[in-house]
Amino acid sequence: MTPMQSEGFRAGYIAIVGRPNVGKSTLLNHLVQQKISITSRKAQTTRYRIHGILTDSRSQFVFVDTPGFQKQYTNRMNTAMNKVVSQSLQEVDVVLFVIEALHFSEQDQLVLNLLSKAVPVILVVNKIDKFSDKSRLLPFLDDVDKRFDFEAIIPVSALNQVQVSEVVELIRPCLPENPPLFDVDAITDRSSRFIAAELLREKLFRLIGDEIPYSTSVVVDQFTETDKLITIYATILIDKSGQKAIVIGKNGGKLKLIASQARKDMETLFDKKVFLQVWVKVRSGWADDIAVLRQLGHE
Ligand code: GDP
Ligand code: MG
Q: At the topology level of CATH, where does 3-174 sit?
């Protein structure tokens, strides 16, 4: 697809905000139709700003997936995360504020309080597939509508891809006239290395579930690419040595499963054979260690 560089082309940044678990990553994945932002039933799996890019003949949409606004934790990691949220809200042309239908909580209000009136905000009411009596939606929408001067309100099911393309059409007129901001073939401006780490982290959260804390992280130590093969050495950083056995599993079975599922996703995404080697290291107290945070790109 070759987007026209002609007059009338629109391009801009769209932030996706909302409390954890409302479906921001799921929405982003379907908006850009590529799996680049990880999703999980656990909250807080997205720690970075990720750009997902959708380009069509008339516009380029650059999406920013932000971590959920966090109130309950106060260590540096989460302070850094909240900073990311506020920053991303000042730099964008449009904000998609995502909530879950019929569940407007205090946490949603806290996110709403972060939004600037200077930037158009589109309210995306997600997970409408979760209840059958649709008449319950109207009074809910009425109530939320009173809380902010929204540019538009749209009910969707990100999971079932209901009304996702309508979201794109609501965003389009809000973008400024600009030539494309990124290479039109770009899916993401993040490096393959970063995506590899995200895919591995997603498998970790999916396969270990509640036994592993959010502070667990993944670092890609080496990423080398030849014509035929990508070789990746990665380390899973855990808080306490007690978690090591959980991550590695009996006879290393858990870690093997995590690595092999991550490798399959990497091969699909990179369209190349991947050799993946994963280590597990204990880094106690690292969530409060500024040096490590910098290394991971938070500050
Ligand atoms: P985030 O924390 O806001 O990024 O949320 P995720 O995209 O990771 O989604 C959190 C959970 O909600 C996952 O289990 C998703 O599968 C689920 N989810 C997302 N969108 C929908 C939806 O439209 N309907 C339903 N039923 N579940 C959804
Ligand atoms: Mg997410």
A: Rossmann fold (3.40.50)
Facing residues of 11 across strands? 60
- Sign, CA torsion 208/214/220/226: positive
Q: What is the pLDDT of residues 192-217, one digit of tens each?
A: 787 788 889 888 888 887 677 666 88
* Sign, CA torsion 162/17/31/259: negative
Q: Is the CB of 158 under 6 A from ligand 1?
A: yes
Ligand 1 touching residue 155 (CB < 6 A):
no
Question: Structure tokens of 23?
Answer: 């479906």
Question: Tens digit of pLDDT for each residue in 234-275?
Answer: 999 888 888 888 899 999 999 999 999 999 988 877 778 999
> CA–CA separation, 160 vs 158, rounded Å?
6
- State the architecture of 192-296 in CATH terms: 2-Layer Sandwich (3.30)
